[in-house]
């Protein structure tokens, strides 16, 4: 069966690295993005130039209508879905919890939790239609276990919800042959910190990481692709930490 994966938030950072790695392993890739069409097109062009198959599909994973359109487009243009990587996520800015805007907190949960759940529901429905023994990989964060006090407790809480959901859904779907796993990256060299309002955060954090450096997007992508592969066939309902020992 042809391997087809949707990767949300795949225009940049970890999502883009995962799209390139998945294509290298023979996946046709639907590169989802929110607003940066040029970045998503660059990922697609790189995959096609290497002999792979990919399309760029815009959409806000926190909007159910966009999720439905994403899955319909991917299946129509690439074929039946066999995998999903839920990478899209937002931090909602940095700062103490008591100063966090309730509307921003709600938006973080809309995208990071409810949107991810909606994508999982759509993926499972697709697997069931085609009979695929599909795989879902949800991107969490080491913030889920640290709590990120003083930085973004709301974001950490959303990622803790993702890990609980990954465990529960993975156990629920295991008898059907569908695997649900997670990857929790530590500090990684992406734009998310600058967009959150603290461009220097990575440099400050590096000395406190046992490996004394932050991760690179490709170092997160490789475990994701491993979990998608038959080599991980007995792994489900669990989240792997990729954080340099932190």
Description:
- GO terms for molecular function: oxidoreductase activity.
- It comes from Pseudoduganella namucuonensis.
- InterPro entries: NAD(P)-bd_dom_sf, SDR_fam.
- Belongs to the short-chain dehydrogenases/reductases (SDR) family.
- The protein is α/β, with parallel strands linked by helices and 246 residues long.
- The chain has one domain (4-242): Rossmann fold, CATH 3.40.50.720.
- It has helices spanning 13-24, 37-49, 64-78, 102-130, 143-146, 153-173, 192-195, 201-205, 217-228, and strands at 4-7, 28-33, 54-58, 83-86, 135-139, 179-185, 238-242.
- A seven-stranded parallel β-sheet has the order 3-2-1-4-5-6-7, with helices on both faces.
- Helix 4 links the parallel strand 4 and strand 5 (135-139).
- The longest helix has 29 residues, at 102-130.
- The termini are far apart.
- The model has no long low-confidence stretch (mean pLDDT 95).
Task: Produce a short descriptive summary.
The protein has helices at 13-24, 37-49, 64-78, 102-130, 143-146, 153-173, 192-195, 201-205, 217-228, and strands at residues 4-7, 28-33, 54-58, 83-86, 135-139, 179-185, 238-242. It has 246 residues and is an alpha/beta fold. It has a seven-stranded parallel β-sheet with strand order 3-2-1-4-5-6-7, sandwiched between helices.
What is the number of domains? Answer: 1
Return the CATH class: Alpha Beta
| Share of helical residues | 40-55%
* Helix segment tally: 9
Q: Main sheet?
A: 7 strands, parallel
- What's the CATH architecture? 3-Layer(aba) Sandwich
Give the strand tally: 7
Low-confidence stretches: none
Using the coordinates shown, work out and report the CATH topology: Rossmann fold
* Strand neighbour order, sheet with most strands: 3-2-1-4-5-6-7
Structural class call reads alpha/beta
Mean pLDDT: 95
């Amino acid at each position: 069966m042809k391997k087809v994966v949707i990767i949300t938030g795949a225009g940049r950072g970890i999502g883009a690295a995962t799209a390139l790695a998945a294509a290298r392993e023979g996946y046709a890739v639907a590169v989802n993005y929110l607003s940066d069409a040029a970045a998503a097109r660059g990922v697609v062009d790189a995959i096609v130039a290497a002999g792979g198959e990919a399309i760029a599909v815009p959409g806000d994973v926190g909007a159910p209508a966009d999720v439905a359109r994403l899955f319909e487009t991917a299946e129509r243009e690439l074929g039946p879905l066999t995998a999903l990587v839920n990478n899209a996520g937002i931090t909602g800015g940095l700062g103490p919890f008591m100063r966090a805007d309730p509307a921003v907190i709600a938006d973080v949960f809309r995208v990071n939790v409810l949107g991810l759940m909606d994508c999982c529901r759509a993926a499972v429905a697709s697997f069931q239609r085609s009979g695929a023994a599909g795989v879902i990989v949800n991107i969490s964060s080491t913030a889920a276990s640290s709590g990120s006090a003083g930085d973004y407790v709301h974001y950490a809480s959303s990622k803790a919800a993702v890990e609980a959901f990954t465990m529960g859904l993975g156990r629920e779907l295991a008898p059907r042959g569908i695997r649900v796993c997670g990857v929790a990256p530590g500090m990684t060299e992406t734009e998310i910190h600058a967009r959150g309002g603290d461009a220097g955060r990575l440099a400050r954090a590096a000395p406190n990481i046992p490996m004394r450096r932050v991760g690179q997007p490709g170092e997160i992508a490789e475990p994701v692709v491993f979990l998608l592969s038959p080599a991980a066939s007995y792994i489900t309902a669990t989240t792997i930490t990729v954080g340099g020992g932190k």
